[in-house]
Task: structure prediction
Amino acid sequence: MQTNFTPEQLSDPGIARANEILRACVHCGFCTATCPTYAVLGDELDSPRGRIYLIKDMLENDRPADEKIVKHLDRCLSCLACMTTCPSGVHYMHLIDHARAHVEKTYKRPLMDRLLRWTLARIIPYPGRFRVALLGAKIGKPFRHLLPDPRLKAMLEMAPKRIPPVSRSDDAQVFPAQGERKMRVALMTGCAQKALDTDINDATIRLLTRLGCDVVVAKGAGCCGALTHHMGKEAESHSAAAKNIRAWMAEVQGEGLEAIVINTSGCGTTVKDYGHMFRNDPLAKEAKLVSGLAKDVSEVLLQLEIPRTEQTLRVAYHAACSLQHGQQIKTAPKDLLKKAGFEVVEPKDSHLCCGSAGTYNLLQPEISQELKARKVATLAAKAPDVVAAGNIGCIMQIGSGMDVPVVHTVELLDWATGGPKPSKMISNLS
Result:
């Protein structure tokens, strides 16, 4: 794609990177075939190619975002299926992230939009606040039909039936390996996951220590910054990321780390991009090192000895977009489940998003619900005993529409290797 940025514009590192990405695009349109919003809405401007044209026009002309641009950019899930499909290697993620930051700086949203986004950014990344909000949503859920805005209804719908008690495993500490130590790793415990489903981190710690890892929960680490990053709130997202970088670097410079384990793939995609996010920052060297150490839990488990067991369960594997497209991890979770003895099946159109996508299901509930219905239908068609996924957002989204339990992959692997049966599977059978 031909671009016409001025030398002055290209002196800005963000514009220079956008220029590189735009020039890589050859207008082929392969991305439209795998874009969930284009499949649902059928509008070229709701495809990656259409959004690229809008972003190019906005940035080249150095003009503020307008209502039209914001509408179509907001509808993007950032599922990154387009990056998997693109034959030209267009790095759409960096382009849409830059465009969202530009929107945040130049466009004044309607009052309700600003309030909703401010509220989400001030609550979800903070587990304590999020727990209180979930409790409030649970109380208000029976009255959701009285609310005029579908986004407010979606926020009440988000409340789970049960809010788990705080897990002390999420406190800063070290869990020693059982038997011979093979690795020393840090576990990113995250933010929303600590309020929504504490079983995931508990299972991860049990599994990793059983397989010979010292597991460190680093003091000062917390939210990865993804939620605010995808809202274009650069200062807030970089602040959260910087805290993690400093916390993990303290461990690297102390007893050392072989990996930073992340069991929420949406977070993993962001942490692996810290090197890019901080490329012009004093923390650039440390951020690049942290990005290099960041591994999805499935990547680390492949390096360890998962014992083979005999299971009788049929597991439908849901591939989270942030894992299969953002991190290009496609087979590791399935291979691990098969090695543990499970029968693994995949739904039709497994490349398509479930509609969760961070806060997307709260800010774009209509599109999200249609994508959720498609995903639930394709998973149910496989007649599974349980659904496994690697991202808390997907687990919550799909779980609210399935008749079978939806659990994290590590919960099944933990159970297969000597841990407790996942609690959702017990409650589902009772």
